[in-house]
Amino acid sequence: MKSPGELFDLTGKVAVVTGSTRGLGREIAFGLAHAGADVVVSSRKAASCEAVAAEIAAATGVKAIGIACHVAEWDSIPAMVDEVVCRMGRIDVLVNNAGINPAAQYATDVSKELWQKIFSVNLEGPLRTSQCVAPVMRDGGGGSIVNIGSMSGYGSIVQSAAYGASKSALRHLTMTMAQEFAPWNVRVNILSPGPFKTEMLAAAEQAQPGALAMLAATNSQNRVADISEIVGPVLYLASDASSYVTGDDLTVSGGMRK
C-alpha cells in the first residue's frame, strides 16, 4: 500500500499542460513540477513557452521544456506530441487546459466565425490532443487525462452561449473518452472551476467594478479563489490518488450552484 505522500508523487512522470504560459495553466504546470513531474509547457508562442519552462526548471529542479502549439490547428497537434515523445520519452499526464472566451456571445446573434473559433480551441483541441496522446500513454502502461471545463458548462449564462456550450460538450466528450480509453489504463476526467483570480477576471473587474464581488456571491464560500487553489484538485486527478476515478467531473467552485 502506498503512503499518502506516494499517492500524490509524480516523480518519473511526464506531464503535458496546454495553455500553460499564464493563468491557471501556468499554475498547474508549476504544481505538477513541484509534485516531481517533468513538464512540457505548451501554448501558441514559443518564446513564452520556453520562458515559463525555464522558470519551472529553475524553481523545482525537474526537466521542463517548452513546445509551441496552437490547439485550434488540428493538423499541428500530432507533431507536438511526437516532439514530446522524442524529447521526453513518454507522456503520463495530459492537462487539456487551453481555452478561450474572447468576446460576448449572445445566442441571438453569435457569428459562425466566433462560434467555430471557440469550439476549435475548447472542444476540438482537447479531442485531437487526447487522440494523439492516449496511444502514447497506452504504450507506456497508462496515464491520466484531465480536461479543464467550467461551471459555465452547467447552466445558461448570458453572453456566453458558445463558451458554455463548448464546456458542456467537453464534459460529454470526457465521459465518452473515459469509456473508450479505459481498456488502455488511461483515465479521463474533467475539472470544472468556478471563479478564480486570473488575468481575465482582473480585466473584467477593471472594466466593470464590482464584477468580482458579483462572482463571489454565486458560491457558498462567497469568494473568488486564488489560482494556487487549482493545483490540489488537478494533482489529485493526475496522480495515483485517483486511481479508481475516471469519467468523473470534479467541480472546484466554492460550492457554486449548478
List keywords for this structure.
258 residues; alpha/beta; Rossmann fold; 7-stranded parallel sheet; 9 helices; 7 strands; 45% helix; 3-oxoacyl-[acyl-carrier-protein] reductase FabG; SDR_fam; oxidoreductase; NAD(P)-bd_dom_sf
Structure description:
The structure is a single chain. The model has no long low-confidence stretch (mean pLDDT 94). Helix 3 (46-60) links the parallel strand 2 (38-43) and strand 3. The longest helix is centred in the middle third of the chain and has 28 residues, at 112-139. This protein has one domain: Rossmann fold. Helix 2 (23-34) packs parallel to helix 3, helix 2 (23-34) packs across helix 9 (231-238) and helix 5 packs parallel to helix 6. Helices cover 45% and strands 15% of the residues. It has 258 residues and is an alpha/beta fold. A seven-stranded parallel beta sheet has the order 3-2-1-4-5-6-7, with helices on both faces. The chain is globular, with a radius of gyration of 17 Å. The chain has helices at 4-7, 23-34, 46-60, 77-88, 112-139, 161-181, 199-207, 211-216, 231-238; strands at residues 14-18, 38-43, 64-68, 93-96, 143-148, 186-193, 249-252.
List the helices and strands and how they pair.
Elements: H1 4-7, E1 14-18, H2 23-34, E2 38-43, H3 46-60, E3 64-68, H4 77-88, E4 93-96, H5 112-139, E5 143-148, H6 161-181, E6 186-193, H7 199-207, H8 211-216, H9 231-238, E7 249-252
Parallel strand pairs: 1-2, 1-4, 2-3, 4-5, 5-6, 6-7
EC number: 1.1.1.100
Pfam families: adh_short
Family: Belongs to the short-chain dehydrogenases/reductases (SDR) family.
